[in-house]
Amino acid sequence: MSARLYQIFPFLLWLPSVNKNTLKADLMAGLTGAVIVLPQGIAYASIAGLPPEYGLYTAMVTPIIAAFFGSSLHLISGPTAAISIVVFSALNSLGVDPDSGEYIKLALTLTFLAGIYQLAFGIARLGSLVNFVSHTVVIGFTTGAAILIATSQLKYVLGIDVSRGANFIHAWQEILQHITNTNLYVLAVAFVTLITSLLIKKLRPTWPNLLFGMVIGSLFSFLINGEDHGVQLIGEIPRSLPPLSTPDFSLERIRELAPEAFAIALLGLVEAVSIARSVAAKSKQQIDGNQEFIGQGLSNVIGSFFSSYAGSGSFTRSGINYTSGAKTPFSAVFAAMFLMLIILLIAPVTAYLPIASMGASILLVAYSLVDFHHIKLILKVSKSETAILLTTFFATLFLELEFAIYIGVLLSLLLFLNRTSHPNILAIAPNPKTLNHSLQSVKEKNLTECPQLKIIRIDMSIYFGSINAIQKELNNITKQGYKFILVDAGGINFVDMAGAEMLEQEAKRLEDLGGGLYFYHTKEKVFDSLRDSEVFDHIGDYHFFPTKKGAIHWVFSQLNESQCQRCDKRIFMECKTIEFIDKDVN
Length: 586
What we know:
By secondary structure, the chain is mainly alpha-helical. The chain has helices at residues 2-8, 11-14, 20-47, 52-69, 81-92, 101-123, 135-158, 168-177, 184-203, 209-223, 251-283, 289-303, 315-323, 330-346, 355-369, 372-381, 383-398, 401-420, 442-445, 467-479, 497-512, 524-531, 534-539, 548-558, 561-566, and strands at residues 77-78, 312-313, 424-430, 439-441, 453-459, 484-488, 516-520, 544-545. The protein contains 25 helices and eight strands.
């Protein structure tokens, strides 16, 4: 009963650990987080095509719900760059004007549907789902998204006209066509913002560099009378807390947005769980993927009724939250509360923020999304991973973003199936140099094998995808003259019905040849599944042994004795009991 209660209310697990010291630490971490998310919230809302206050609303509501119903102590949720660009792409494909009230309503509907998907995944205990989305897919997608984000902001940095919603190629065509019309005042404001942010990040890494950049950029714009020279301002953000809102629940809109919502849900879960695990590796905390699914789902569902658009875990804010000394999820609550206070106090000041400064800040955000280290590593190490990286990257640039996510996931699954369908089958033999003549790799240790008994180790599950490769290898062993095959089954984690039937066929084939197929070190779970099937009865329980010693002793008794007498290999302990007869003398 208590375990069920903790699943429904996971915050009951960490709530007893809250005390004066943890609250003090969380309070300071929360203040830092509020300052960090202020410029990010404005920038991310702009990427999503929404008014700036919606990014701040998302940073107020989403982290509180995710903190109480997730499993991570340090994960901070809220608006993110990658999800923001997918939201814009999804709604832009419907031809809805971003400046309209309908656009906002559909963004909330998209958020609600994404949250429902995530909540359903969590309730269905599909936390392992994100394991099938490789890190390479995420890197390829975020790199492509970074370029799309940067492209979308160049018109604000240069002060030129580019059609809203133009795709990647057309956007660059228009940028190059109008590059001579660049407004130098706008470019100067963006440049000052950019340089200030970079200097602050280098000289004072713990300071909110984007915030300082925007402030200095705004002051510079004021000093040069930028507004008189075409420098547009963002306008005043409403001085209010997140107002109540209602998504569009019409069947037509739900049907239109469902595929895009699924892509956002999947991307959000991958972001949140991967970030939570990354931070947990430092904090030594155990993460429950299913609970994170529920936390993210609830935060988006509830957030859609409080003017918040789709959010997920933020690597930057989560990392800063941990390094700032946060002890419990109350740090996320304090960050949201401080942000509310800041908005109520300084909202009118945002009226003087130049769009060019915000655009420059978003360029830095886009740059931070590119994981140069892992891209170089992937290109250097793996051709298959490189193919996935490049495919996802180019699909992100030239196709619909949600389709790019699906392509990446599909490629990850295909790569996984390809790898598991080619199990590692290793020939092993006793090593006389070891204490107990342990079985080791024949190829690696250059060991001698028995001419009659082939011993192999299979390091992979035997299922419908891998049976062809395994069966082919067993046939090749038979062609080498072996009739007896002993399998070290310690590396086999699972055998499905197709795999069991294949083993039955091979056992029968070897038996017809006068030999047999034998196993030892079979895991209890695998042994039980085979025992419960008819296949086990057909193979025979005397073909399964708990230890290597017992297996070799039994199989050795089945070998051709006259051939053993003429054999000079003598690699088994049992071989000493056989009198050697020179074949030439014979």
